[in-house]
Design goal:
The structure is a homodimer. Chain A has helices at about 5-15, 30-35, 40-50, 80-90, 105-110, 150-155, 160-165, 185-190; strands spanning about 55-60, 65, 95-105, 120-130, 135-145, 170-180, 200-210, 215-225, 230-235. In chain A, the strands form two sheets. In chain A, strands 3-4-5-8-7-6 form a six-stranded antiparallel sheet. A two-stranded antiparallel ribbon of chain A has the order 1-2. By secondary structure, chain A is of the alpha+beta class. Chain A folds into two domains: about 5-70, Orthogonal Bundle (Arc Repressor Mutant, subunit A); about 80-225, Chorismate lyase-like (Chorismate lyase, 3-Layer(aba) Sandwich). In chain A, helix 1 (about 5-15) crosses helix 3 and helix 2 crosses helix 3 (about 40-50). Chain A is built from eight helices and nine strands. Chain A is about 30% helix and about 35% strand. In chain A, strand 1 and strand 2 (about 65) form a beta hairpin. The interface between A and B is large, with 49 and 48 residues. Strand 9 of chain A pairs antiparallel with strand 6 (about 170-180) of chain B, so a sheet runs across the interface. Chain A binds a DNA duplex through helix 3.
Chain lengths: ~240, ~240
Amino acid sequence: MNRYMEIYADLKSRILNKTYLTGTLLPSENKLATHYQVSRETIRKALVLLLENGYIQKKQGKGSIVLDVQRFDFPISGLTSYKELQDSQNIHSQTLVHSLEKIRISKEFSAKIDLPINTEVWALMRQRKIDGEVIILDKDYLLTAIVPTLPIEEAENSIYLFLETKKQLAISYAQKEIVVEKVTEEDQQLMTLREEDTHVVVVRSRVYLEDTRLFQYTESRHRLDKFRFVDFARRRHA
Amino acid sequence: MNRYMEIYADLKSRILNKTYLTGTLLPSENKLATHYQVSRETIRKALVLLLENGYIQKKQGKGSIVLDVQRFDFPISGLTSYKELQDSQNIHSQTLVHSLEKIRISKEFSAKIDLPINTEVWALMRQRKIDGEVIILDKDYLLTAIVPTLPIEEAENSIYLFLETKKQLAISYAQKEIVVEKVTEEDQQLMTLREEDTHVVVVRSRVYLEDTRLFQYTESRHRLDKFRFVDFARRRHA
DNA sequence: TAGTGGTCTAGACCACTAT
DNA sequence: TAGTGGTCTAGACCACTAG
């Protein structure tokens, strides 16, 4: 752990602890530098993390204002996965692996995702149950070249967890798209849909590793009434 | 303009120009520092901007890899407003101001947005037409305490543009929520909905100023078939 | 005017990648 | 081993806020 990460974690916990109250100012950068026995630039790196994650707002000549962090709950934003979400929200749910098989990318599919025809991938389909109803249908495609084995027990939990801890793969960034589409026959069969459900929310993601290789394509299909996406956004000044 | 912003802009344009090609490495930080006649830390600040905006991917011991920026088009993410979006996408559209009036926050409404009861706000309702059809219905509420006057001509364009250039208000960050809801009677009357449109996508935003004051609450209602949200996300390491 | 955050420097050492 | 990015320092000057 780097020094500025440690300081970030410490300040963050103090904000969550209410040691630093909403609306008040953090100690100045110089004071923090003295307190943590580091240079001011190191403090500033920690503060950038607080800023980016919505814990503080900085104002030149004034200081760092603590934000109301309670309001910014439920961060599906970023690359948070279903399992992480579930843990943080105490949602009682269950994952059913519907199918797991090796396939090769067809011509039509190749156009949709940007993988060459015939690339071998794991095709994983999972149903996410909440209170006995299948609310989400997850369709994942992972390159077998990067993930040779995919135990079915792992698929029942978080794939990200498995890949990051056991396979030492560094997931770095993703492109995500949210649209609403008409339900397919597959949705009808595999999800708990009501009569009024003519559409589902579809979240498509392409996930890349640190070395910029694409290794996962995901299609997550959500029942309309259970879908919610929350984002904390800072205005780009560039 | 700061030096690192200038360097960011320059490197960004070179990437878009194809001076630096997708998949190749940028010159090393030391070389860039020599070339731009600045210290390495200044170069690093410029590279952080490229990183955050999805132009490069860095790898320790290797270098900064140029990403395929074409793929990351259509950024509704962040705080981009409708007008900015329209400009960058060449969409032919039209904005109709349906109503603009001063109102006071009611008890029920106060619970939904976090403003005290009786706060005076501008209530602005706009219809967004594309190819003759009203696709989006925007409902904005702006604090009159912060924006005393709101000319109707300005409302027909971008409110952000008006506030930032003419009123010198610094918009800083927002919390955004996307859900799907049943159409209301109001939607039926003010939007071009088809028989199958039983739901609309609702994007709710709370927008804050640099001094952390909330000053705008927005509800943007989109026809299902025309809604698309794209996001570039980096995995949080904290 | 004193104190704050914003920018920038010149140098150091470390961890990682490639050869 | 040479070169890369990652971290950290101690200091400087500037722009902004508030009393």
